[in-house]
Write a structure and sequence with these properties.
single chain, 462 residues, alpha/beta, Rossmann fold, ten-stranded mixed sheet, 13 helices
Length: 462
């Protein structure tokens, strides 16, 4: 019969759906290249798909005269295409390109980085301590980008920061290369918006082994609501700090050694020193911002340094508490799982005079740190808020859980959905800083609890 080929004595259709699998795999690769872009670690997959597509093309064509193809053999070859289909689908599924949430405020967001040197402080960390303390900071701010402007990358130095983060997380060094494909909502070097004469300032401090863009979703969210947000790379406490001359310095593990190796006393001393250094970084940045407000043409006269807030995660939260305890320039502060165990006892017993928002993960409420945090809240003045979020773990307060849907299995997040905790955290931060830096209405506790039943919160009006 025309159009049929013999298979062990039976007639079968010339074309079956299974025979198109190799070409389907090739189509999937093309879609991947268009939507996500090229990933060098998938080169073997590209090669396999190319070979299978060539085989598939032959299977779908009528064989040359005299050539008899056994149908079962055709099917077996075609079914091999399932291998590249799985291989193509697996990397994007396990390590997808994170999609950062759209900032909820009315402003577009600009960003730029600055290099700072504190000549008055000697560096105590690193392989060659003794020089002045060097820092990189990044600003996010309300902006008027050009119509043809495009948003910048998650980080300017992914070729250094990506491998360092991957190895710290136990991945191959190339595993996070695809983060170069992440689309932020920040326009590099965009002009500052003229919508307001001056903008309040918020400074962010990352945790141990963090980096200045680890919370880019939060800095963008705050900037979109009319804040100039400044994030600090705490040199030798950041996973990687890259300076304008190309030098890159990673974490100095001796700054926070393994307690099991050095003993409790040495560990506590190192932890307290680390928090002190990071707090000094933040106060130096506030000093430097005065110079930016006076001398940088892009921001001259536009930073309202009478309305300064700070927030931080983990060790960064402990540094923020330290600054707010010592520096009256801190008008309001927030800590996301702030690590307060290394703080001197008088800081805990004094409490903070400024309004402060303490947000804890469910994981950290079970640790000794939480007892001290509750004491700090109890001894503080008006405007103190204490919140906990069920279903969260420590890393839920940064963007790390967006890296992979396997984050819960890797211990990088709790069972709560990342989109949920991101929206919740943005709402808490914007509401809090709007209240105390912009003179907005007091945080609507009933409204927050209604929108986010996973939040347990108490507060003292200030």
């Amino acid at each position: 019969m025309a159009g049929l080929y013999p298979i062990a004595g039976f007639a079968a259709p010339r074309v079956k759906a299974v025979h198109g699998l190799p070409l389907a795999a090739a189509a999937l690769v093309i879609v991947h290249l268009i939507v996500e872009g090229y990933r060098w670690q998938m080169v073997p997959v590209y090669a396999v798909v190319a070979i299978m597509a060539r085989v598939g093309g032959r299977l779908l064509r009528k064989p040359a005269p005299g050539l008899q193809i056994v149908q079962s053999g055709r099917s077996k070859i075609a079914l091999l295409a399932l291998i590249p289909v799985v291989l193509v689908a697996l990397p994007p599924a396990v390590l997808p390109v994170p999609r950062l949430p759209e900032p909820s405020g009315p402003f577009e967001v600009g960003t730029l980085s600055l290099y700072l040197v504190d000549e008055n402080r000697a560096e105590i960390y690193g392989p060659e301590p003794g020089g002045p303390r060097e820092l990189m900071i990044q600003l996010w701010y309300p902006a008027n980008p050009d119509p043809d402007a495009t948003p910048g990358p998650w980080t300017d130095d992914l070729d250094r920061i990506g491998p360092a983060n991957a190895q710290r997380l136990g991945f191959p060094s190339f595993a996070l290369d695809h983060l170069a494909l992440v689309e932020t909502h920040s326009y590099p070097e965009a002009p500052l918006s003229d919508a307001e004469e001056r903008y309040p300032v918020i400074v962010y401090s990352h945790g141990w082994t963090g980096f200045r863009t680890v919370n880019v979703d939060q800095t963008e969210a705050l900037a979109s609501h009319g804040y100039i947000v400044v994030s600090v790379d705490h040199t030798f406490g950041s996973i990687m700090t890259v300076f304008p001359d190309g030098r890159a310095v990673g974490v100095d593990d001796n700054a926070l050694p393994d307690e099991a190796e050095v003993g409790e006393k040495a560990y506590q001393g190192a932890a307290q020193k680390l928090i002190e250094v990071h707090a000094a970084d933040l106060m130096f940045v506030l000093d430097a911002l005065e110079g930016v407000d006076e001398e940088d043409d892009r921001f001259a006269g536009r930073l309202d340094l009478d309305r300064v807030g700070l927030f931080g995660h983990s060790a960064g939260g402990g540094a923020v508490v330290t600054v707010c305890h010592a520096d009256e320039r801190c008008r309001a502060g927030a800590g996301l799982d702030p690590w307060v165990e290394p703080l001197p006892s008088n800081v805990i017993s004094d409490g903070l005079a400024q309004p402060f928002l303490y947000v804890r993960s469910e994981e950290w409420t079970a640790f000794d740190n939480d007892r001290l945090l509750v004491d700090l809240y109890t001894h503080g003045g008006g405007g103190q808020s204490l919140a906990s979020i069920s279903g969260t773990e420590h890393w839920d307060f940064v963007a790390i859980p967006l890296l992979t849907p396997l984050a819960p299995q890797l211990g990088l997040k709790g069972p709560i959905k990342s989109e949920r905790v991101i929206a919740l955290t943005h709402d808490l931060l914007v509401s809090f800083f709007d209240t105390y830096l912009k003179g907005g209405t007091t945080i609507n506790m009933a409204g927050l609890k209604s929108r986010y039943p996973e939040v347990t919160m108490e507060a003292r009006p200030g």
